[in-house]
Amino acid sequence: MAVTNDLVTDCRVMRHAAALREAGCEVLLLGRNELDVKCKKGWKFYAEYNLRLCWRLLRSKADVVWANDTDTLLASYVAAKMRRKKLVMDAHELFPEVPELVGREKVKRVWERIERKLMPKCDVLLTVCQSIADYYKEKYGVEMAVVRNISDCLNMSMLECLSADVKNTQTIKQSGNPALHVLLYQGCVNKGRGVDWAIDALEFLPDCRLVIAGGGDLLEEMKAYAAQKQWADRIQFLGRLKPEQLEAVTRQANVGLVMLEDMGLSYHYALPNRIGDFVAAGIPMVVSNLPEMAAVVNSFGIGSILDGTGARSLAEAVKRVLAREWSEADFVEARKDMDWNKEKTKLLECLNALML
After folding, report:
1. What whole-number percentage of the chain has pLDDT above 70?
2. Do residues 283 and 212 lie in contact, with contact meaning Cβ atoms separated by under 8 Å?
3. How far is CA 248 from CA 35, 99, 242, 281, in A?
């Protein structure tokens, strides 16, 4: 299973790998660290990564090559074809439509050309939501199975499942006022993720503090931005956390924040992993008014949807959530729907069909 990140916080890939191991498969995970990629960004990174990945796969004895996202597809296809092995692609997002490629038409066309040529040649195609599956069906005529981003271990009503080390993790610092509500943003601190909205929203939420768990391209910029605010003492940056640490942090939140600016189709159709995490944790959330995210909140009544964009809209949505008492019962139906066992079954059905 190939991915261009360092695998440390890629919960989707880890979940899939664990499910495949449970089914009796041997799984080799290949990220940028495992391939010892020297270049860190830009076209040189992708060129070096794909060359190293292809060479590693050609020496592998794997029966199935599993590409995660478009940026691993070229090397995976070449290696699978040369070794006459099966090829799976899992599209975690609409890669050519990510915000970082908005306005970069030449680069976008390169990734689209790779998708157009190679996706129809994959033996199995997966993605995270029906909207993306429909998009690729219309664009390339391919059929994709949907395996949603659902947490497999965050059954927050079963605290016994956690080890003592995790239970005792004091990751969120104690504020001078312990009565403050905890707003949690978890995920990449990148362009279009609304982290700046959350920082600014504290001006209108004097009874709240903000915890940001994640790394990313804009992490240092957001730290500097937050430090300038009069309410900087109510903001905590935790950096990237291991999954078990993030579980402990999620349990301490009062509101989960899932904001995306509508900056391209990848964000427009996104169903972020953290929505499943918050559902499993029994944490009401505030989400952007985008199709997949809003559908979850609307269907199960487990939070509030932003009326617009920016800090004021976010603050009003947070107030709506905090104005209500929440209990485990509010999340029962959402958990029944967003059950990893259902998604795992679909994943293994795809694998069985592939091997047959």
Report:
1. 92
2. no
3. 31, 31, 10, 10
**Residue range 192-226, pLDDT digits in tens:** 999 999 999 999 999 999 999 999 889 999 999 99
Looking at beta carbons, which pairs linking 5-8 to residues 24 or more positions away fall under 8 Å? 5/31, 5/32, 6/31, 6/32, 6/33, 7/31, 7/33, 7/34, 8/240, 8/242
CA distances from 143 to 67, 146, 272, 295, 324 (A): 16, 10, 22, 23, 42
Euclidean distance between CA atoms 342 and 35, whole angstroms = 33
Distance between CA 23 and CA 64 in Å, rounded?
14
Length of the chain: 356
User: CA gyration radius for the chain?
Assistant: 21
Helix (H) or strand (E) run with residue 88 in it:
strand 86-91
Structure tokens at 157: 């009503």
> Which pTM value belongs to this model?
0.84
Q: Are 145 and 350 in contact (CB under 8 A)?
A: yes
Question: Which range among 137-141, 160-164, 312-316 shows the weakest confidence by mean pLDDT?
Answer: 160-164
Quick one: tokens of 86? 């099966």
Distance from C-alpha of 310 to C-alpha of 58, rounded to nearest angstrom? 48
User: Which of 188, 195, 154 lies closest to 272 in space, CA to CA?
Assistant: 188
**What span, in angstroms and rounded, lies between the C-alpha atoms of 195 and 174?**
21
Type of residue found at 206:
P
Q: Which amino acid is at 30?
A: L
154, HSE (Cβ side, Cα atoms, 13 Å): 28
**Does residue 181 sit in helix, strand or coil?**
strand
Three-class SS state of 353: helix
pLDDT one-digit tens code per residue, 281-305 = 999 999 999 999 999 999 999 999 9
Which are the contacts of 34, defined by CB distance < 8 A and separation ≥ 6? Answer: 7
- Decide: 197 and 309 in contact? Cβ < 8 Å: yes
